[in-house]
Amino acid sequence: MRHKKQRASLGVTKEHRAAMLSNMAASLIEHGRITTTLTKAKALRPFVEKVITKAKKAALATEKKDAIHLRRMALKDVRDENAITSLFNEKHKEFTNRVGGYTRIYKLGPRQGDAAHMAIIEFVKADDQGYKKPAKRASAAKAAKATAAEAAPQA
To answer: Which of 35, 55, 80, 129 is the most buried if burial means most Cβ atoms within 10 Å?
Structure first.
């Protein structure tokens, strides 16, 4: 029975899932955004965010051995030396002012071949404030009333 199993199995074995998440994380770090199925994107998000947090902690580490340990822990997960090198050397600086929430998922339409729900997962930019609601437009009646009130005292 699968009681209290929180992780999405993605229809593959544990080893296949670990390799798939590792490869997708390396691609996301390298390219900044990838297109995948919605379920895989939702599984990838916490995986990548934990690796980015390790990179941020390594940058703040006072002792070199702590930074090396965090780098090896991240390399255990992602298993791509080039991706980890670029993340730990350059890309972690984009997330210094952000506490979590390093990725964003955009939902796309269904894939044409099998109607799977597709999504884009990408890194959030450093200066991105996220979604903002547009300012409510004042109704025409309120605007006319305000201009009439301003014009009356001047006369």
So the answer is: 55
